[in-house]
Amino acid sequence: MNMKNPAHKAMMTSSIRRARPVPVAAPLRGSFLLAVACLILFLGAGPVQGQLEWRVSIKFILDATGNRPSGSLDTEAEIRDQIDLGNEVLDATGRGFRLRLVEVLDVAGISQWYNADVSSSKGFLNFEALSDPSLYRWNTTAINVYVNNDNSPGICSFPGDGSIILVGQGLRPTTIIHEIGHYLNLCHTQGCECGSCDSGETGECHTTPGNDFVPDTLPDLSCWTRNDISQNAFGTDYGFLGPENQVRVDRTFNNIMSYHGTRFILTSDQMDRMTDASNLFRDEVATGRTVFVDNTSDCLPQTGNLNCFLGFGGPLTNVLAGSTEASVGDILMIRGSTYSETFTFAKPLTVRARKGNAVIGLSPFATLTAEPAAARKEEGE
After folding, report:
1. Where does residue 49 fall: left (phi above 0), alpha (psi -120 to 50 degrees), or beta otherwise?
2. 314, part of any domain
3. Is the pLDDT of residue 48 over 60?
4. Across-strand partners of 339?
5. Residue 66 has pLDDT above 50, yes or no
6. Residue 27: is it exposed, middle or buried by C-beta count within 10 angstroms (0-12/13-18/19+)?
7. pTM for the whole structure
8. How far apart are CA 338 and CA 335, in angstroms?
9. For residue 148, what are the CA distances in angstroms to 15, 114, 115, 195, 331?
10. How far apart are CA 151 and CA 364, in angstroms?
11. Is the peptide bond before 301 cis (omega within 30 degrees of 0)?
């Protein structure tokens, strides 16, 4: 049976206890048990809607006379464009996450922040908002994004360093998804401590790349071209690279977390890092959890998160344990390998593969495939 769905959903009933054919391009819906004899999950991303959402709340800071900020982000339509572009980027990863804009609010009574410098005000604004959540219209179940009239782009709080995003009017079409990347523990491709290259400066961040702690991006600097990235990584210009290495350069140069001109890519390892942050530190803004399965995991005890911390809390080692750990509607993310087990999916879950194809069971009967979709390119920045 060939299932071309990018996501495979199984539900529960008492009457049907065997695998059944699924129409092409339609996810499994309704109520039944899916008994797995062999399920092959092919790595890939499709143009799919997310099964899990990160909720986003936008607040315009009004001036003393009730006016919104004026510039490149002062209407609901411009907010929606930022969210839509972010969702195109997330859809292209095939990982099942999207942004959901839950509200756009005008916030009066806090005009002291209307023209405040974005980079120096974030921490103070975060403190004041948590001290008076009613006045600041704080949403405890969403990513809180405040918009003011400063001409700067934006600044975010990493996990453990606050819970707020503050953006001004100097932003780009991808600024909100870029800042949400930081909110979910992503660094710049040029390094966690790095911003722009400063003329005349040397050393890390200026002439030497920092570290973003993401294995599938290449060393980068904000002032580098594709050729610079290629020369540093491979010792030759971009045009002389094979297709595989050109892709490696592209996914750094066109990365959402870079400072380069055209940004439309999040990599698989970046999505891993964002998902773990969502599971561990930002679960209040997400509609569910991704449970990771990896039969090479040696963490004890295993919790279904991706990364071990001092040997604790990593992926579960079998699919049955993963499906048991996951709650209704969660994503079960299985690292590519063969899992020789048979069992029954007894709750609604989305099953996906990462880092290669995952084969579950004993003899092939079902195939789940999806092909990568290209995200819209951001032009004219």
Report:
1. beta
2. yes
3. no
4. 360
5. yes
6. middle
7. 0.85
8. 9
9. 57, 5, 6, 22, 36
10. 58
11. yes
Do 251 and 217 form a contact (C-beta atoms < 8 A)?
Answer: yes
Residue at 143: amino acid letter:
I
Distance CA 56, CA 58 (A): 7
Hey, CA dihedral for 159, 350, 90, 194, is it positive or negative? positive
- Which 8-state DSSP code applies to residue 188? B
Nearest to 135 by CA among 71, 62, 203, 68: 62
CA separation for the pair 124, 128 (Å, rounded): 6
pLDDT reading at 378 higher than 70? no
Do the beta carbons of residue 16 and residue 32 sit within 8 Å?
A: yes
Size (the chain), residues: 381
CA distance 82 to 208: 32
In sequence order, the β-bridge partners of residue 106 are 60
Mutual angle of helices 226-234 and 243-253, in 10-degree steps? 120
* Residue 347 maps to a domain: yes
Question: What percent of the chain lies above the pLDDT cut of 70?
Answer: 81
Residue type, 243: P
299 within domain boundaries:
yes
What's the structural domain count of the chain?
1
Distance CA 182, CA 63 (A): 28
Q: Answer yes or no: is 375 within a domain.
A: no
Q: Are 107 and 148 in contact (CB under 8 A)?
A: no
Q: Which amino acid is at 238?
A: Y
Phi-psi region of 91 (alpha: psi -120 to 50; beta: other; left: phi over 0): alpha
Give per-residue pLDDT as tens, 195-216: 999 878 889 999 999 999 999 9
Yes or no: say if 310 and 300 are a contact pair by the CB < 8 Å rule: no
Q: Is the separation of the CB atoms in 35 and 359 below 8 Å?
A: no
* Cα–Cα–Cα angle for 74, 78, 81, rounded to 5 degrees: 160
Reference 264, options 77, 54, 92; nearest CA is 92
Domain of residue 327, residue span: 2-45+289-368
- What does the block give as tokens for 137? 């219209």
- Distance separating the N- and C-terminal Cα atoms of the chain: 46
User: CA 100, CA 197: separation in Å to the nearest integer?
Assistant: 34
